Amino acid sequence: MSPSIPLQEMIRAIRSARTQCEERGVIQRECAAIRAQFRQADNGARSHNLAKLLYVHMLGYPAHFGQMECVRMIASPRYSEKRVGYLGAMMLLDEKQDASLLITNSIKNDLSHSNQYVQSLALCTLACMGSAEMCRDLAPEIDRLLRASNSYIKKKAALCAVHIVRKVHELGELFAPAARSLLTEKNHGVLHGAVVLITELCERNPEALERFRKTVPDLVQIMKGLVISGYSPEHDVAGISDPFLQVRILRLLRILGRHSETASDAMNDLLAQVATNTDSTKTVGNAVLYETVLTVLDIKSESGLRVLAVNILGRFLLNNDRNIRYIAMMSLQKIVGTDHNAVQRHRGTIVDCLKDHDASVKRRALELSLALVSASNIRSMMKELLLFLSSCPPELRAQTASGIFNAAERYAPSQRWHIDTILHVLTTAGGDVRDETVPNLIQLITNTSELHCYTVHKLYRALLTDISQQPLVQVACWCIGEYGDLLLKGECQETEPAQVTEDDVLDSLETVLQSHMSAPATRGFALTATMKLSTRITDNVDRIRSIVSIYGSCIDVELQQRAVEYNALFKKYDHMRAAVLERMPVIEKNSLGQTNGESAVEAIKAVQPATVKQGEPPLPLQPANQVCDLLDLLGGSEEPLQPSSVQSGTASGLPINNSSTAGGDLLDLLGGFEPTPAAPAPAVTVYEKDGVNLTLLCEKHSDSGLTVTLTASNSNDSDISSFTLQAAVPKSVQLHMKAPSGDFLPARGAAKVTQMVVLNNPNKVNLKMRVRISYTSQGSACQDTVQIDSFPGL
Amino acid sequence: MRFLLLFSRQGKMRLQKWFMPLTEREKKKVMRDMMMLVLARPPRSSNFLQWRDLKIVYKRYASLYFCAALEEHDNELLALEVLHRYVELLDKYFGNVCELDIIFNFEKAYFILDEFLMGGEVLETSKIAVGVSMEEADTLQEVQYKLSKTFGHWSFSHYSRSCCVISRRWRST
């Protein structure tokens, strides 16, 4: 085996290796030699070999076989070997390794060594990788060193104590008295260590914090000394005397003054002095100013000082140095909640920073800008934000888009502006928006009925230009399906009307259907929109029919299912098509969250408080109820899509038109109910007592099936609550009670409660029904039973 | 401070000091991430980055990147000063330091770092004091070498830039 080469030569050999393979070869040879050397007895080259091993380790190669050697070297009496051994321990061992416990004893011995450099090695290693047990073992030693040694050791012991406190919180108590006394030292290193230690103790323990508040005057004194003192070559950095110590003292003052009026008062003058006198031309001065500003804003400072601090931040914002601007924005972010007006004054500069080239600065500017949006500046801010969105780096897009949506939702000055903004975002960054944007936008559009024409025109134009942004295409398809007739009418107040023909519209929808860029959900939207247009256009219904039938054999199961159902609508249920595909009613926010499977009860309850928007048929709707009916009719198909498409699919809500000719048939088919007084079908009164009136209406919907509608009203002067109906039928008859429309009967017949009961009489027995009525009136509960033997209309 | 890394533009690690316990694997991942983040930055960007929950401060000196990770409450501008101070200390010790010095005398770079920082905090704020301690420690080492020389052991001396490599070996006869 070739003799091992000295460290420098090995390094040179590794560096001159031309390929990775060569390098690995050299390193493997060396490691083998080192391993052999380790196995031999003490041969004086140990530190040398270990140093080589450490170099190899730094390059990324495994070096765990050196761990035991480190332990041995640390125990050696020679300083050179100890030095490298401790370095190896810090690099190769950490508290998770078992070997680290073995050095505890060596460290303990070295802590009491006569030579301070040996002591310092031990302290350094303990502070670097000391585990909790080691810390517990050696804490008393450290405390001893904190009190009685020279300043070189004291400063190291202080930082070692910091590490111990971080690892084992309870030991903080042990060091508190020593820390207090260290504040009287003159040596800056010791002072610095003491301040760090006290900071650590105060952060962890509120009692310690209370006790150390008494040190505020001393700290102020020390700080004043640093600020006023003349030039000291040892500690000076660009005109600032010992900035490291200054910053640490400021940080400690921040912690001490945080919730205490008295402490904050004591430091007011000092902070004002530092803030005004510190030279801010160099980074180091700015570092001190920055810490001062953070302290002022965190403690209970007087308002003049706060204004001074915010002004300093404002000055930072205008600084040419990017670092300073970044820092300023980070600090402003912290106070934007509390000192909102002060930060608003700098809004212009912050918005300018959006255009900076640096990615970090951009990110900070974006967060701060979003926090500064308010009702008064929404228009100008949104302009800037939209501009930013078109040019921002991709990683910030999603955040920007969602921030814009939130801001638009909270402060939109007008509906049209809101819709415009969302459309703008969708066209610029459609791929990065969240999923719930589409249903939210659809709901927004439905609710602004006066802008339907405008919206559909805009969306149609957007669709013509670009069909790659999925959310936009989905919304556009939905709109064209809903409001296609407005598009074709060719007149619009808000924007220039487009001269489109029915073929154009159908062309655009077909393009979406066939494009490879469209996601499956988008194609679903497009197909449904095409279908809806069959009721809104007059000439090209055949074309629609053919499109729909083509997709009846589509590979995509979802599209196929839809197409088949729509085909059915064309063929078997053509008379229903108009009503099924009528305009959507206003979507209530809570009903959007429902899917088909949910119980009708919840749906009814949710729609109960629905207020009727102008322009829609003035009837309270129970879409989920009809959903169930319709599902029964069409074979119970499940639509596992987004709620909005559920609504727009086959199971769309049914506003019942009193005057429509299809209405009568519809009622027959779906057992439609009329909660308003003008019910077209004859109803028979089956119960009348104590002002409670119950009428019955029944419709046959199949050979053995029958739907009975019970309507209750209250002619008393007092309201009736908790009104429930229970029904019983002969054994062979199947009964299904739907959810009642409510349980409250206001006085004097102001409103009625309706209950639908579906009966199935396969054996055609004589139909009888017993109904139990229970309610609470004027505080007392009442109950009654009525038997119904004859059903009119049967 | 959580860790301090020095690496070259080519992605070679020259010094790594960890102030928090991590496994080897985690360390490797962190180093890779740091190099990727820092080396990708355009020339005139700001020196601060956000990475996970840490603030990364980096500064380029000639061919070396000095990269430090700070906690939430640390002062970034001061960290820049800390990095600068470390470079000054290296410069004072090696005399016009360059990357080669740090490569061939990496253990000295570590020793100087250990005199300046400990447990992630600044240990000594005076430039002069650090230099003095290093000198005295080196002298102690030399003295011990000279003593051991008479007993015939391998010895080791540090590389000085002004002359070529001197490695003295004494073999016991």
TrEMBL record, chain A:
GO terms for biological process: intracellular protein transport; vesicle-mediated transport. Residues 679-792 form the GAE domain. It holds the Pfam family Adaptin_N. Its main location: membrane. Keywords: Cytoplasmic vesicle, Golgi apparatus, Membrane, Protein transport, Transport. It is found in: Cytoplasmic vesicle membrane; Golgi apparatus. GO terms for cellular component: cytoplasmic vesicle membrane; Golgi apparatus; membrane coat. The keyword Cell membrane does not apply. Belongs to the adaptor complexes large subunit family. This is AP-1 complex subunit gamma. It comes from Solea senegalensis.
TrEMBL record, chain B:
It is a peripheral membrane protein. The keyword rRNA processing does not apply. Coiled coil: none annotated. Keywords: Coated pit, Cytoplasmic vesicle, Golgi apparatus, Membrane, Protein transport, Transport. The keyword Ligase does not apply. InterPro entries: AP1_sigma, AP_complex_ssu, AP_mu_sigma_su, Clathrin_sm-chain_CS. Residues 1-139 form the AP complex mu/sigma subunit domain. It is found in: Cytoplasmic vesicle membrane; Golgi apparatus; Membrane, Clathrin-coated pit. One of its GO terms (cellular component) is clathrin-coated pit. One of its GO terms (biological process) is intracellular protein transport. GO terms for molecular function: clathrin adaptor activity. Adaptor protein complex 1 (AP-1) is a heterotetramer composed of two large adaptins (gamma-type subunit AP1G1 and beta-type subunit AP1B1), a medium adaptin (mu-type subunit AP1M1 or AP1M2) and a small adaptin (sigma-type subunit AP1S1 or AP1S2 or AP1S3). Belongs to the adaptor complexes small subunit family. This is AP complex subunit sigma. It comes from Solea senegalensis (Senegalese sole). The lineage of its organism: Eukaryota, Metazoa, Chordata, Craniata, Vertebrata.
